[in-house]
Amino acid sequence: MKVILESSELLDILEKVEQGERLSREDGLALYRSKDLLLIGHMANIVRQRRNGDKTFYVVNRHINYTNVCKNRCKFCAFSRDEGEKGAYAMDIGQVLQEAEGVVKQGATEIHIVGGLHPKLGFDYYLEMLARLHERFPEVHLQAFTAVEIAHIAERAGLSLRETLRELRDAGLGSIPGGGAEVFSIRVRTELCAEKLSGEDWLEVMRQAHKIGLKSNATMLYGHVETSAERIDHLLKLRSLQDETGGFMSFIPLAFHSDNTFLKGHPRTTALLDLKTLSISRLMLDNFPHIKAFWVMLGVKLAQVSLDFGVDDIDGTVVQEKITHSAGADTPEELSVEEIVRLIEETGHRPVERDTLYREIVRPQSRLGPGWQIMEAQAPYGGVS
């Protein structure tokens, strides 16, 4: 091993990682250039172990995609429809409540809600959705509306971002998912999603959310037309905002799927790129408590392997995810808690059920069903200051 390290351009980076030093943009580019996947994974695992030990987190959750009608028709999206187009839909509030009912009875602690930018849904729709869900399921955390959706909702409401976020929070919004970030590069967004919220504006929504006490996640869609340098620059912008606000909980790299999109035929990401991107994310985002492998996009088997490449969160049960499956994902639409626990335990890590804010969940009688409790002594970020 010593001989390999002495001949590797990653030796200086390894020394930085072992000393807990921040990596530079040049370091990130060197990591992407390197073919030494195992060493990159080893370094990422040093950080993972330092932050979260042998814990691997999962959540019992349910995804609800309330509409696929969207005024933006991004080239990488297979989910969106124009209003009136075949297959277009928009749930009424009763349907949203019905979608949530079953899994909440089974013990879900999180409802994850995202959708398209519907040109006709008013502010009252979003407020009522949150308020009625919160009233019906007060113990369940509502993680809802990407930064792109929130900017759209603010526009529909005629309010500032701060005012919109406050009203959504007061209606029951608990935190914000990380979607819609894609890649912040102006070049990429001009080519693939010119009408979408800009990268800087996405960051501003998150900045305003963090300022009023709402936590969020962050994502990056990779494996399409972006370069390695654009990925690293994306990570650095996230790292800079986290230095400023401390409001991000986890980072989720999202592997691009091209089926049924304008980029149909574009090859899927390789296992090497997936594991390298997860590992590099862990190494570059030194101020993010958690790195999550979204098994819906990666595949269950690779998500399991990623737990030894810097990842400490395998997401959750999910239940009926539509967006990625519209683009050809061949993964299941949900996993049982038993399956998740088995996947984690096989890697030698310790499964830990969490809520959305990374507080540990205890279920005295069973893994599912009512009666779960939050370990109040657990810090919201899984023990990371």
Structural write-up:
- The chain is of the alpha/beta class and 385 residues long.
- The chain has a domain of 269 residues: Aldolase class I (TIM Barrel).
- Helices cover 43% and strands 13% of the residues.
- It is built from 16 helices and twelve strands.
- The strands form four sheets. A four-stranded parallel sheet has the order 5-6-7-8.
- Helix 3 packs antiparallel against helix 11.
- The relative contact order is 0.15.
- The C terminus is likely disordered.
Set out the fold topology.
Elements: H1 2-6, H2 11-19, H3 25-33, H4 37-52, E1 55-59, E2 61-64, H5 93-105, E3 110-113, H6 123-136, E4 141-144, H7 147-157, H8 161-171, E5 175-176, H9 186-192, H10 199-211, E6 215-222, H11 228-245, E7 248-255, H12 271-284, E8 290-291, H13 295-298, H14 300-305, E9 313-316, H15 323-326, H16 337-346, E10 350-353, E11 361-362, E12 373-374
Parallel strand pairs: 1-9, 1-10, 2-3, 3-4, 5-6, 6-7, 7-8
Antiparallel strand pairs: 11-12
Helix pairs in contact: 3-11, 4-12, 5-6, 7-8, 7-10, 10-11
What's a quick, concise take on this entry?
With 385 residues, this protein is of the alpha/beta class.
Count of strand segments? 12
Helix/strand/pairing class, anyone?
alpha/beta
Level of helix content?
Answer: 40-55%
How do the strands of the widest beta sheet line up side by side? Answer: 5-6-7-8
Strand percentage lies at 5-15%
Mean pLDDT rating: 87
Major β-sheet annotation: 4 strands, parallel
N-to-C SSE series? Answer: HHHHEEHEHEHHEHHEHEHEHHEHHEEE
Task: Supply database-style keywords.
3-stranded parallel beta sheet, 385 residues, 12 strands, alpha/beta, TIM Barrel
